[in-house]
Amino acid sequence: MSDFSMDVGDDGVAIITWDTPGRSMNVMSLQGFADLEALVDRVIADDAICGAVITSGKPDSFAGGMDLKLIATLKERVGEIPAKGLFEGVMGIHAILRKIERAGMDPKTNRGGKPFAAALPGTALGIGLEIPLACHRIFAADVPKAKIGLPEIKVGLFPGAGGTTRLVRRLGAMAAAPLLLEGKLNDGKQAKAAGVIDEVVPPEELVERARAWVLSEPKIVKPWDEKGYKMPGGAPYHPAGFMTFVGASAMVNGRTQGVYPAAKALLSAVYEGAQVDFDTALRIECRWFVNVLMNPSSAAMIRSLFINKEALEKGANRPAAPDQKVSKLGVIGAGMMGAGIALVSARAGIDVVLLDQSQEAADRGKAHSAAYADTGIKRGKSTPEEKQVLLDRITATSDSKELRGCDLVIEAVFEDPGVKAEVTRQVEAVVGEACILATNTSTLPISELAKASTRPEQFIGIHFFSPVEKMLLVEIIKGHETGDQAVAKALDYVRQIRKTPIVVNDARFFYANRCIIPYLNEGIRMVTEGINPALVENAAKLVGMPLGPLQLTDETSIDLGVKIAKATRAAMGAGYDDACDDILFWLADEGRLGRKAKAGFYAYDECGKRQGLWTGLTEKYPLAAEQPALVEVQHRLLFVQVLEAVRALEEGVLADIREGDVGAILGWGFAPWSGGPFSWLDMLGPPYATERTSALAAAHGARFSPPDLLREMAAKGQSFYGRFAPAEAANG
Amino acid sequence: MRDAYIYDAVRSPRGRGRRDGALHEVTSARLSAQMLDAVKRRNGLEGHAVEDVIWGNATQVKEQGGCLARTAVLASDLDQSIPGLSINRFCASGMEAVNLAANQVRGGAGEAYIAGGVEMMSRVAMGSDGAAIAVDPSIAMETNFVPQGISADLIATLYGFTRDEADALAVESQRRASDAWDAGRFANSIVPVTDQNGLTLLDRDESIRPGTDMQALGALLPAFEQMGKTLPGFDKVAIMKYPHLEEIRHIHHAGNSSGIVDGAAAVLVGSKDFGVAQGLTPRARIRATAKIGTDPTIMLTGPVPVTEKILAEAGMAIGDIDLFEVNEAFAAVVLRFQQAFGVSPDKVNVNGGAIAMGHPLGATGAIIIGTLLDELERSDREVGLATLCVASGMGAATIIERV
């Protein structure tokens, strides 16, 4: 069955409909391109056809993008030279889109040719916008939920099927920048305002309006195919363009801290392409695109942030069990976490009972949702009606009997085993037998908490990250006795609220906190060693961590650090490493509890705005005369996390390295350019990683000793994705 | 190897590099030609008296493009058998012209050269020739390119110079330049610029602000803070290269940075035989020349390593140098030089510098060699070193000694 079909009306207008079988949204494949090209050829050759409208058979969308398997296929096409296969393959795609754009016009006079209109019923992403950009006029249905744009940069790519070159020539570098460099998505109206598309029309008139335009004998030659074309805003060596381009490099460099190859390649394609004719510019775009595709960072980002993230969201590790969708959720504890959980759940259409000890406390938690909705209304993203629907779904109460009928209850009360046990007993007294009870603890072992339950197989950890509305990851923790149904319930719930789940086994700090705490501690420890705190913070950012360890400690608060330190010491006894205790306890004693106290590792002004590292740090811990090289600091900060991830895998806390990688990036922002800890280790190669961590261990302590698993893999010449990737991994 | 000598050095007064500057109406070729004619006239050069004219210029487009050196020769009274070579090492172009000439003479390729340069900054805007290092993302991002003002502030941050220190240096530059003019110390070198009817357009440096004090400078806002801190955010780019810095302190402004001016200068360089043949007396021997590349982000620290290099090559120590000319591109460049070598400010730029008198990019290197020589003669000292920082991370230096 073909992805594209064509219907020629009596008026001679061909309606080309894109309808990928078995998909809710169109996805472009190599076969799809071939099908499209055959139809384009017919439109151009057939005298009975006067032009074409390219639209979609899906009700709300034009296309979701490219099937990224296509890239793998192209890589393998020219045997030993993947770059050649990619270059030729992508140039082939350019040729098809260029054929639409030139539409049979005479190459010299620009006479003749047939108009192609794109009619977008809704969402059009990636190649789904690049094809329309090659057409002569773009119509979009006025659908507020539509997302139109080029989000490739978010998975470590850039628009490589002419989208970069066409958008820059259409809008100029300055106006195209947010669309290309940030992957900003717009609805139809915004896309028209931004100049990305030409017309927004009522959905029911979409195809007819496009058809009428085709019949109007429009001028179809693109500005860049006409003599005297000048790029809007100026090319790089035009006085105005010069400043734009100087600024763009600096801005992208500073923002990406130099670790994202796609942004650099994108800018280069724009800069070099702006100085030559259109066809040469496409070839330049293609060479940079291939350069990015060949970069291990991009491949790893695509694998983790696109393919594997989607696989996990679709339930890659879900036990076989009937649909466990949540219809009524109980949330106990209306503090910051509980209020956030209530909000994201109600937003997903789930009825929520938000329970706290007093009605006032419960109401305060519900008010969080109201405030959230108000912000949405102010920004034009929501309406008072939608706010009311949202609030109607949340019942704030202090009466635990209201939990009756809940099929999932999540407690987010104080981190105290006694308090939590009491809550467990209270809940189980009210809810039905099938109800699953979850705890949002971030520090207490699930299996211990499950002891308070009369049905531990229905007891599970669902660990949200703060702020709940923003953070994409949810860590699901299985206690020793947790059953499959509870896991399926948690996964189905996470899917309902549109977050990404990982499922891990119960062990101290689970997975995310287990890795992030050593990162914080390593940064703090370096300060005590007399390493320049600015170097510590900058080194973290220069290796792609969103926040330096000292800033992150301030954000999560020093007293939490103190609490974790005390608890860890109690749990580990003699094995406890107290290197960070002095500085943490000292800061806590000084009342420097972090951002909330407007004092921590950093100094803050009265409004809580960060002013710079607190000078008291280097007074107490004077700078060492000899400062380490940047890469030494970076390796300490990264390996201390990555080795913990390997240990989690070795100990069976992690069952799937895909979860290890996706969870690290979404959970605590682990250097996204790397694709995650395991992808990074594969990039380095286990032999080098073993050698380097052994050296770090010799210099800085046993926490850097390579785990046996890593040594073994180094000896056997294995890679993590070679050894541990599930067979069906690439089902994106 | 034979020696190269300086026989003469002239310069134009420097005009403000703006539409209301006194030299704005003069073309680059005409101003250049007036310098060449002055050298010819003052030294009685006839026919193919020099091998070539090597002419520095940092912005070789429009009227400064198309091998301006050759155009200037043809616009002058020099014989057409003298060709003309345009060169560009940004701010050190004028010095590099002299150094190239000296080394050609030393190597036996010709007996004499006129070397110098010109920059009409009011007519051909700085940077208007484009620069891939700034705009090409694959290079700008790789090298962590930032504009010079950010680099100067980076030097100040890294080496601990305060706004007050920079301003004090600027005040002193103004005072020294003003005093030097009043005492007639530039009289021997200045060639007044005239129009085609012989009317004088400018006979004195136009941009000096006598009486500049700390209070006046204190009122000026840092010039590079906004581009550094907010848009487009060059500070972050610089810190990527210098990650032990938390922030860049912005101390430079129009008052403690070099002025934008129009100007030109020429130096007559030749062998001993040339002097004998022409009946001219050499004023100084060019003892050593040097150039070097440095980190392009901090960009302007070149004077330090290039001075170390030239001293080593000349077999000299810093204490052997009697006087220094360190181009005042930005105050921090000079402060860093003095700090690195422990040199007393009393020996550096004793007649003021580019902060007071301006920095016509392609000419300055030749100007400061002439200024250094005049002062060595006036104060009866022997050895001088001139050096400049150079865009994209370079440095150049020349050591001269009186004969």
Question: Your description of this structure?
Answer:
The complex is a heterodimer of chains A (732) and B (403). Chain A has an eight-stranded mixed sheet with strand order 14-13-12-15-16-17-18-19, sandwiched between helices. The radius of gyration of chain A is 28 Å and the shape is globular. Chain A is 49% helix and 12% strand. Chain A is an alpha/beta fold and 732 residues long. Chain A is built from 30 helices and 21 strands. The mean pLDDT of chain A is 94. In chain A, helix 14 (359-378) packs antiparallel against helix 15 and helix 28 packs antiparallel against helix 29 (708-716). Chain A folds into four domains: 1-147 and 186-221, 2-enoyl-CoA Hydratase, Chain A, domain 1; 152-184 and 226-294, 2-enoyl-CoA Hydratase, Chain A, domain 1, CATH 3.90.226.10; 328-507, NAD(P)-binding Rossmann-like Domain (Rossmann fold), CATH 3.40.50.720; 513-724, Orthogonal Bundle (N-(1-d-carboxylethyl)-l-norvaline Dehydrogenase, domain 2). By secondary structure, chain B is α+β, with helices and mostly antiparallel strands. Chain B is built from 15 helices and twelve strands. Chain B has helices at 28-43, 68-75, 93-107, 132-135, 137-143, 148-159, 163-182, 214-218, 225-229, 234-241, 272-278, 303-314, 331-341, 354-357, 361-378, and strands spanning 5-11, 15-16, 52-56, 85-87, 112-120, 193-194, 200-202, 261-270, 284-293, 323-326, 383-390, 394-402. In chain B, the strands form two sheets. In chain B, strands 1, 2, 3, 4, 5, 8, 9, 10, 11 and 12 form a ten-stranded mixed sheet that branches. In chain B, strands 6-7 form a two-stranded antiparallel ribbon. The longest helix of chain B is centred in the middle third of the chain and has 20 residues, at 163-182. Chain A binds chain B through residues 236-237, 239, 242, 245-255, 257-258, 264, 267-268, 270-272, 532, 534-535, 537-539, 542, 612-613, 627, 630, and chain B through 127-128, 130, 134-138, 140-141, 144-147, 231-237, 239-240, 243-247.
